[in-house]
Amino acid sequence: MLAHDVVIAAGARPDRSFVLLHGILGSGPNLRTLARRLVEQRPGWAAILVDLRRHGGSLEAPGPDTLEQAALDVAELARSLERPARAVLGHSFGGKVALQWLASSDHELADVFVVDSNPGPRPDARGSEGTLRVLDVLGSLPGPFAAREDFVSAFVAEDPRPAIAQWLAMSLRRDDDGWRFGPPLPSIRALLASYFAVDLWPVVESPPARSRVHLVIGERSSVLDAADRERAARIAARIPERASVTLLPTDHWVHVEDLDGLLRAVVERTPG
């Protein structure tokens, strides 16, 4: 079972669950601020912060490291929840896991929020070159490290972006010999390969009955190019009751750069 945390507004008695799925180099706590603010505005919901397979507390999840298996993991978790999962939000890799879950029949989802995640195949990893660069840097670091600060310094020496280094440090784990990056890099690369290979545009173009798909796109992000955005807009225009597109003035890290805008897009489409 995937590790997860439940966030509930003070004094609330929610009867539904809203599942939140992080990106390929993150973990459940990355979306905690969004979860807290979401349940404050929609106290009828409990927010479920999930550690996807090979991340956070779910390092030992069984089965192959594929997008399909990641969605099966989430479906299994959802079946165990006290409150039925009626909505899901996923960022980047997590967004495509959400779509893969929607494509199955094992859900009760009404709303699926896909945050800066391309539903289509990208065998050339177009738009995600930065993520691959980070993986290369992580693979080159010596480790283990005596302290978190040593990891940050080593990363910044290869990639001069302290904010990224500090964020990655959230995923460090401590072993007897020191600190090392928690998610196993071979598994992360396998999950990304599956993510880039799968085509889930069909489920966006024709969502299952009683389900809606909401694409939230960072205007400055390169994950969805002009053709992808035009395709998304055509879908939303053709079936406005089943699909929507929201553009926010951000790069890829939508929930960091414009949390207010993302929250507004979610709350407007989430019943109380």
As an assembly, this protein is: single chain
Proportion of residues in β-strands: 15-25%
**Tally of individual domains:** 2
Structural class: alpha/beta
Question: What does this entry look like structurally?
Answer:
The longest helix is centred in the N-terminal third of the chain and has 14 residues, at about 65-80. The chain is globular and about 50 Å long. About 40% of the residues lie in helices and about 20% in strands. The model has no long low-confidence stretch (mean pLDDT about 95). The two termini are about 30 Å apart. Strands 1-3-2-4-5-8-9 form a 7-stranded mixed beta sheet, with helices on both faces. The chain has about 270 residues and is α/β, with parallel strands linked by helices. The chain has helices at about 30-40, 65-80, 95-105, 130-140, 150-160, 160-170, 185-195, 200-205, 225-240, 255, 260-270, and strands at about 5, 15-20, 45-50, 85-90, 110-115, 170-175, 180, 210-220, 245-250. A hairpin with a 2-residue loop joins strand 6 and strand 7 (about 180). The chain has 2 domains: about 5-120 and about 200-270, Alpha/Beta hydrolase fold, catalytic domain (Rossmann fold); about 130-185, no CATH class. The protein has 11 helices and 9 strands.
Overview features:
41% helix, seven-stranded mixed β-sheet, two-stranded antiparallel ribbon, Rossmann fold, 272 residues
SSE layout:
Layout: E1 4-7, E2 16-21, H1 32-41, E3 45-50, H2 67-80, E4 85-91, H3 93-103, E5 111-115, H4 129-140, H5 148-158, H6 162-169, E6 172-175, E7 178-181, H7 185-197, H8 201-205, E8 212-218, H9 226-238, E9 243-248, H10 254-257, H11 259-268
Parallel strand pairs: 2-3, 2-4, 4-5, 5-8, 8-9
Antiparallel strand pairs: 1-3, 6-7
Helix pairs in contact: 1-11, 2-3, 5-6
